[in-house]
Structure formats: C-alpha cells, structure tokens
Amino acid sequence: MADDFPRVGQVIDYHYLWKWQDARGETEGRKRRPSCVVVVAIDRNGKHHLFLLPITSKEPAAGRQAVLIPETEARRAKLDTRFPLWVIVDEVNYDILETSYTLDDRSPRGQFSPAFSDQIVLAFKAIRDTRTLRVSKRT
Fold first, then answer.
1. In the structure, how many helices (H) and strands (E) does the chain have?
2. Which domain of life is it from (predicted)?
C-alpha cells in the first residue's frame, strides 16, 4: 500500500458496485474501474472510511450529475485520454479500508490536481446536501 493512501483526489482501480446492481442484490462490482477517492474520514479507532466515485467513459444519462475530466487531469491520473471521461458525483461506494474485501490493490494509479479534486468534492457535496446521493455500502 502506498504510504500516502488514501487521499482525496487519488484514482484507484476498484470493483465499483453501481447502485442499480446493489438494488438487485448483487454484492460484487462486475469489473474493476477507475474510481476517485472523494472523502476520507478517520474514526476514533483509526479506521479509514472511504467514499469512492466511479469514473466512466459512458456519457452520463439525463438527470445524472457528473464532472467532465479535462485531458490534462486524465493524464495526471493515468487514465485513457483517447475519449471523454466523467466522474459521476451523484453515486458513491462506501468502504472501510482496513476491513475491505474489494480494495485488493491499494496503490493509486494516479492523482487529480488539488484544484480539480476540489471541483469534484464541491459537486459531490452539493448532491449530498440535497439528500439525493445514491450510496452502495461495501462493508
């Protein structure tokens, strides 16, 4: 595991479980996909509570909230730059680092800049504050 993991703005490969899959009773993400760490909270026992946002190349459907990733940020995060990518901000996976069965590779593939990370966090918080955030618990 990287010494600086987890940090907001880091991009990891994660078996992301979409909320529609969770609602159908699925417990495993169907494939590893780049995901962005958006919140890291450390509890009094020292456990890291992670909130992870999916990154997708599929243009978000109408009504979904996402942030388009600029090409320079995609390169910084070591993502494919041949097509547009989005960070979906209205859906999140919640996981605990120390007990996670899905975080098998804990080395980040890359990191968004602080300015772009702030943009993602602000968009995420706006959705969270409206209480329309879709959460799949992986614990």
1. 3, 8
2. Bacteria
SS3 state of residue 1: coil
Sort strands 91-96 and 48-56 into parallel, antiparallel or unpaired.
antiparallel
Q: Are 52 and 92 in contact (CB under 8 A)?
A: yes
Q: Which domains does the chain have, with CATH numbers?
A: 10-137 (3.10.129)
**C-alpha dihedral (90, 11, 44, 129), degrees to nearest 10:** -20
Residue pLDDT, tens place only, 76-117: 999 999 999 999 999 999 999 999 988 877 789 999 999 999
Note whether 123 and 92 are within 8 A (CB): no
Which pair of structure tokens corresponds to residue 71? Answer: 């090409």
Tokens of 58: 């599929």
Q: How much is the pTM?
A: 0.92
